UniProtKB/TrEMBL annotation:
Gene3D superfamilies in the cross-refs: Histone deacetylase domain (3.40.800.20)
Pathway terms, separated by semicolons: Ketone degradation; acetoin degradation
Bilayer-spanning residue ranges: none
Region (Disordered): 337-358
Annotated ranges, domain Histone deacetylase: 19-314
Matches recorded under InterPro entries: AcuC, HDACs, His_deacetylse_dom, His_deacetylse_dom_sf, Ureohydrolase_dom_sf
UniProt similarity note: Belongs to the histone deacetylase family.
Name this protein carries in UniProt: Acetoin utilization protein AcuC
Keyword Acyltransferase among UniProt keywords: no
C-alpha cells in the first residue's frame, strides 16, 4: 500500500494572527507523526506542494471573489465577501497561502484517482466553509470542493464526501447540492447550537440530485459511544447504496471534549475509532481509494496533534497503540510553542469506543432522535428502509 502525504512547511503560512485557527496545530501534528515514525513507514511518500492556479480555483470560486482575495493579500483593507471579519481577517499573502492549501488537497485527490497512490492526505486542508463567492468560518478557498471538482474532471462518476468536523460541512454541500455525482455526508453538532446554522436532516439535495446530501445533527454533549452509534446507523448504509468510486473525508478534530469552540464530548480514542471506520468503508465501497484532509480543531496541543497523528497512522498502515507514550522531544517542542498548555503523556484519553448499535423502538435519546430524523429524510432516496437497522 502507498500513501501520499502532501506536505510543505509553507502551508503553515495560512496564519490569521491571533486567531483560533492557529497553524501550530498542523506543525505539532507533523512533528508528532515524525517522532513516532509514522512518516518513515514503507510506502509513505512526502510530496511538496504546488499552489492551485486561478483557473483551478475558478472551478469552485467566482473570479471576482478570487480577485478580491488577491487584493486583500497585498495589505489593502477589504470588508466585503466575508473578508475583514473576526472570523476571516485578511493577512498579507492570504491568497498565496490559501491557494497552496487548495493545491495540496487537489493533488492528493488527483494522485489517488489516477492510481499514483492508494491513499492520500492533505493534513492542512479541510477548509469546508468557504463559499463560491465569500469567505466563511476561517476558510478562504474551499480545498475539498476544488479537489472533488478535479476528480470529476478526470472522469469520476460518483464521489462521496464524509465530513466529521463538529461544524456542518456547508460549503462543500453548497457547491455540490444539485450535482448527482457527489454525495455529501456530514455529522456535526446541531445547527441550533453551533455555527454555521445549517445541516438539518431535511437538507437532502437539490432538484437534480435528491438524496445526495445527508446530515446528522447531533445534540451538545454527544460522547464517543453515542457519536459512533450515530455514525454506524447512517454512514455505512448510504455509502453502500451510493457506491462511490472515491471516498473523501474531512477529519476536523473539534469534536473533542475540551475544544473551546464547540460542545461535543469525544476523546481522541473516539476520533481514532472514526478513522478506523472510515478506512474500512473506503476499502469496502470505494476500492480503497481514500483521500483525507484535516479541518477544524482548537485544542491545539491537547487534541489535534494526537488525533491527526492517529489519522496519519491509519492512512499509512497500522494504527498506533493508544497506550503509546508521547516522546519527550515532542513535549519539549509543544512547551516551546505553546507554554502553559496541558501536555498529553500518551496517545489515549482512556475513552470508551464500544457502543450499542441503533435499534428502532429503543427508548429514544436525543442522539437517537437525530438518527431517526436523518434516516427518515435520507434513506428513502436510496431505497433503504429508515426503520430497518440492517440498512
Amino acid at each position: 500500500m502507498s500513501t501520499l502525504v502532501v506536505w510543505d512547511e509553507r502551508l503553515l503560512k495560512y496564519d490569521m494572527g491571533d486567531h483560533p485557527l492557529d497553524p501550530v496545530r498542523v506543525e505539532l501534528t507533523m512533528a508528532l507523526a515524525r517522532a513516532l515514525g509514522v512518516l518513515d513507514r514503507p510506502g509513505v511518500v512526502l510530496e511538496r506542494v504546488e499552489p492551485a492556479s486561478d483557473e483551478m480555483l475558478a472551478t469552485v470560486h467566482d473570479p471576482d471573489y478570487i480577485a478580491v482575495v488577491k487584493a486583500a493579500s497585498t495589505g489593502r483593507r477589504v470588508g466585503i465577501m466575508g473578508l475583514g471579519t473576526p472570523d476571516n481577517p485578511t493577512f498579507e499573502g492570504m491568497h498565496e497561502a490559501s491557494a497552496l492549501i487548495a493545491g495540496a488537497t487537489r493533488r492528493a485527490a488527483e494522485a489517488v484517482w489516477r492510481g499514483e497512490a492508494d491513499r492520500a492526505v492533505s493534513i492542512s486542508g479541510g477548509l469546508h466553509h468557504a463559499m463560491p463567492a465569500r469567505a466563511s468560518g476561517f476558510c478562504v478557498y474551499n480545498d475539498p470542493a476544488v479537489a472533488i471538482k478535479r476528480v470529476l474532471e478526470l472522469g469520476a462518476e460518483r464521489v462521496a464526501y464524509v465530513d466529521i468536523d463538529v461544524h456542518h460541512g456547508d460549503g462543500v454541500q453548497e457547491v455540490f447540492y444539485d450535482d448527482p455525482r457527489v454525495l455529501t455526508v456530514s455529522l456535526h453538532e446541531s445547527p441550533r447550537s453551533l455555527f454555521p446554522g445549517t445541516g438539518f436532516a431535511d437538507e437532502t439535495g437539490g432538484p437534480n440530485a435528491p438524496g445526495t446530501a445527508v446530515n446528522v445533527a447531533l445534540p451538545p454533549g454527544t460522547t464517543d459511544s453515542t457519536w459512533l452509534r450515530a455514525f454506524h446507523a447512517v454512514v455505512p448504509g448510504v455509502l453502500r447504496a451510493f457506491q462511490p468510486q472515491l471516498l473523501f473525508t474531512q477529519c476536523g478534530a473539534d469534536t473533542y471534549r475540551h475544544d473551546p469552540l464547540a460542545n461535543l464530548r469525544l476523546t481522541v480514542d473516539g476520533q481514532r475509532a472514526a478513522y478506523l471506520a472510515l478506512r474500512d468503508l473506503a476499502e469496502e465501497v470505494a476500492g480503497g481509494k481514500w483521500v483525507a484532509s484535516g479541518g477544524g480543531g482548537y485544542a491545539l496541543v491537547e487534541c489535534v496533534p494526537r488525533a491527526w497523528t492517529h489519522l496519519l497512522a491509519v492512512l499509512t498502515g497500522e494504527p498506533i497503540d493508544p497506550e503509546r507514550p508521547i516522546p519527550q522531544s515532542w513535549r519539549d517542542l509543544a512547551t516551546a510553542r505553546r507554554p502553559g498548555h496541558p501536555l498529553p503523556e500518551t496517545m489515549t484519553d482512556g475513552g470508551t469506543t464500544t457502543f450499542s448499535p441503533w435499534i428502532p423502538g429503543d427508548t429514544p435519546s436525543a442522539v437517537d432522535r437525530a438518527i431517526m430524523a436523518t434516516r427518515l429524510a435520507a434513506f428513502p432516496h436510496f431505497g433503504l428502509d429508515p426503520h430497518d437497522p440492517r440498512d
